[in-house]
Amino acid sequence: MASRAKSWVEYRTPNWVQWCPGCGNYGILTAIYKAFAELGLDPARTVLVSGIGCSSRTPYYVNVSGVHTIHGRPIPVATGIKLANPELTVVVTSGDGDLLGIGAGHFVAVGRRNIDITIIMHDNAVYGLTKGQAGPTLPAWIQTKALTAPNIQDAVNPLLLAIASGFTFIARGYAYHTDKLKELIKAAIKHPGTALVDVLQPCPTYNNIMTAKWYEERIYYLDEEEPDYDPYINKPEDFKEKMPAILAKAVEWGDRIPLGIIMIDKTKEPFQRRLEKLVPGYLDMPPAKRPIDVDGKPIIDLLATFKDRVIET
Amino acid sequence: MAVDISLIIGGPQGGGIESAGQVAVRALALKGYDVYGVREYHSNIIGAHSYFNLRARDKVSRSVKLPVDAVVALDAESILTHMDDVKEGGILVYDEAAKAVKIDRIAPMARPLKQRIKAKLESMGYEASAAGALSYLSEVKKVKLVGIQIKSIVKQVAEETRRPLVSVSRAANTIGVATAFALLGVEAEKVMKAIEMFFAGKRRVIEPNIVAVRHAYKLVEENYGLADPLPDGPFKGRTRIVGTGNDFVAMGKVAGGLTVQTYYPITPAADEALYMEGHRLAQLTKEAAERLGMAKAPVIVFQTEDEISAINMAIGAALAGARASTTTSGPGLSLMNEAISMAVMMEVPVVITVWQRAGPSTGMATRVGQQDLLHSIFSGHGDAPKIVLASGDHEEAFYDAIKTLNWAEEYQTPVIHLLDKTIASSIKTLDPFDVSNVRISRGRFLTTASNDYVRYKLSDDGISPRAPVGVAKQLNTSLEHLEDGVATEDPVVREQMIEKRMKKMEKVLKDLPMEDKAVLHGDPDAKITILSWGSTKGPILDAMEALEAKGIRVNFLQVRLLSPFPAREVADVLAGSEKIISIEANAMDQLASIVKMYTGLDVHHRIRKVNGRTIHEHEVYNAILKVLETGSPLEVMRDGV
Question: With respect to CATH, is domain A8-278 assigned 3.40.50.970?
Answer without folding.
Answer: yes
